[in-house]
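sry for the spam today, last one i promise. struct tokens for design, 390 residues
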């Protein structure tokens, strides 16, 4: 164990070490193959992760069946799933959807949905139209501007009251929806109110009750371990998540706060993937020539990548400890982690490992970055010049 790893382990509580150890053992036993199940992940593995280890409800309150842990513990779990490039609903369900239900849902919605999420029985997906999840979450731009949800014009997803005033009907399309083809519950960002009371709200679409108007098509993405889909809605019945707020920007503010916390957890996942790439590269070199790690130039490059990865990890866990809704340094940690993953993937060997980690790096940049835009948005939010934010 190197010095950084020793310091890392010493800084964790016994419970945190146990979470990491147990999850790592579970993931290291799984075959490192592309999932062939229709869900895009191994349902049995997810049942173990959510049921036996409690990962699905790790950060949910105990009153809803969760374990009441914080962002730090969930970041540890995300780091391990990233290290193994393990496909699972953890990101779409526990990182993106569950906090939105907890923050915006009515008491009845929380009581019904959160326990089912916590025990792993209900998977979720956040469908944000416009093809830019990062923009919808406020990571790369102000989500109160632009027409990403439709903005009263053609495109996006539009919501209108159902005939008789019983619920809502959604019409439109969202692309690049994480786990959108298999999730049991969709949280759809849709525009409503027309010009007079224009606003973006979140709606609940239950896949089993949606009828023929819901068409979900799995996309062929860069990273086969990161399942995405195009979701088409043609007058699909839906329920409003929570109450219609008096402030038109209220839901967008919550989306941005969840986005900043999600950035921390995405950074943990990317850092774990970068660490995994480095471990496999060094292991491959040692098997070919015990005690050797290539030419002096290669050793220097790997040392530089190691520094990048550990810097990203330090920033990630500093952000995870930030108090308040949505840590402001989350997007900066994510920017550093994405760059570290790209660098580690570029040095990865053998070729099949370089391809696996390279695909994850490229897909994450497209979904949640790029790093330069994350830093620019962070600088805009904090009022710091771009160089200072970087």
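last one done:
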């Amino acid at each position: 164990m190197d010095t950084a790893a020793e310091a890392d382990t010493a800084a964790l509580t016994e419970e945190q070490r146990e979470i990491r150890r147990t999850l790592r053992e579970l993931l290291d036993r799984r075959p490192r193959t592309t999932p062939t199940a229709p869900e895009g992940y191994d349902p049995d593995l997810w049942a173990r992760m959510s049921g036996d280890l409690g990962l699905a409800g790790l950060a949910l309150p105990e009153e809803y069946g969760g374990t009441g842990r914080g962002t730090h513990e969930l970041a540890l779990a995300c780091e391990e799933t990233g290290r193994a490039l393990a496909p699972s609903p953890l990101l779409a369900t526990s990182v993106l959807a569950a906090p939105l239900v907890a923050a915006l849902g009515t008491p009845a919605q929380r009581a019904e949905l959160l326990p089912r999420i916590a025990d792993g029985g209900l998977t979720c997906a956040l469908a944000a139209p416009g093809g830019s999840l990062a923009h919808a979450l406020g990571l790369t731009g102000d989500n109160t501007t632009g027409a990403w949800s439709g903005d009263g014009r053609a495109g996006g997803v539009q919501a209108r009251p159902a005939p008789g005033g019983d619920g809502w009907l959604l019409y439109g399309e969202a692309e690049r929806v994480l786990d959108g083809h298999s999730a049991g519950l969709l949280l759809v960002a849709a525009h409503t109110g027309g010009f007079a009371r224009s606003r973006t709200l979140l709606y609940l679409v239950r896949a089993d009750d949606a009828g023929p108007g819901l068409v979900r098509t799995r996309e062929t993405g860069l990273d086969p371990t990161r399942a995405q889909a195009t979701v088409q809605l043609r007058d699909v019945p839906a329920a409003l998540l929570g109450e219609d707020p008096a402030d038109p920007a209220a839901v967008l503010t919550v989306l941005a706060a969840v986005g900043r916390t999600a950035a921390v957890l995405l950074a943990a996942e990317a850092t774990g993937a970068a660490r995994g790439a480095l471990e496999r590269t060094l292991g491959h070199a040692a098997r070919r020539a015990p005690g050797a790690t290539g030419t002096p130039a290669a050793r220097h490059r790997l040392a530089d990548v190691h520094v990048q990865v550990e810097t990203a990890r330090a920033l990630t866990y500093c952000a995870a400890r930030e108090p308040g809704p949505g840590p402001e340094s989350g997007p900066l940690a994510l920017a550093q982690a994405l760059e570290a993953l790209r660098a580690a993937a570029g040095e990865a060997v053998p070729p099949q490992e370089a391809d696996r980690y390279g695909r994850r790096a490229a897909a994450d940049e497209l979904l949640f970055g790029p790093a330069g835009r994350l830093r620019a948005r962070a600088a805009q939010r904090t009022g710091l010049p771009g160089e200072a934010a970087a």
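The radius of gyration is 21 Å. ok im logging off now
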